[in-house]
């Protein structure tokens, strides 16, 4: 079954030649993790040329995040351990974007505050994604998602926009916003989890 989003459909086409090969979803997840970590390290340098390169690595990593899941579905190589590995890689790379961007802003007017803000953004991302995963797992019978997509886009397709943010030099407002917005989003996700559990208990 092909994923509903546009990027899942594109990833489906790309992974088809790999279905009957020794390549596993975990191999792609590992490549996704490595390219994501490399992108975040590039953002931490704080130089324009590194930001450009990091943006391209980030886009590749985000696409590979779709490809590993599609290969798992199509090839029948999905496994509980692979799902956990994919989740940890996703959460880690997304969180480290904000930490890397914050470190990269250390030479700006924000100074050391940039690193603290990046850390707060990263912590908020970790909490929000773990809570969203709990919601999705607990609602498997209904198919209800913590944050459903729309118009052919998954909620986390927003990750593709992170590269243009860096290319345009908008890291500062992005990191400052994430320092407040990511923890607030984690609280919202916690509230949604409580509400979801209350609805199931009442039923």
Name a few traits of the molecule.
203 residues; Four Helix Bundle (Hemerythrin (Met), subunit A); 7 helices
Report on the architecture of this protein:
It is a single chain. This protein is mainly α and 203 residues long. The protein has helices spanning 6-15, 25-45, 48-75, 80-104, 113-138, 162-167, 171-202. It has one domain: CDP-alcohol phosphotransferase transmembrane (TM) domain (Four Helix Bundle (Hemerythrin (Met), subunit A)), CATH 1.20.120.1760. The longest helix is centred in the last third of the chain and has 32 residues, at 171-202. The mean pLDDT is 90.
Uncertain regions spanning at least 5 consecutive residues: none
Strand percentage lies at: under 5%
Number of strands: 0
What form results from the Cα inertia axes? Answer: globular
What's the mean pLDDT score? 90
Supply the number of helical segments.
7
Radius of gyration: 18 Å
Order of helices and strands: HHHHHHH
Instruction: Specify the CATH architecture.
Output: Up-down Bundle
Could you give a short account of the major beta sheet?
none
Summed up:
With 203 residues, the chain is mainly α.
Topology overview:
Elements: H1 6-15, H2 25-45, H3 48-75, H4 80-104, H5 113-138, H6 162-167, H7 171-202
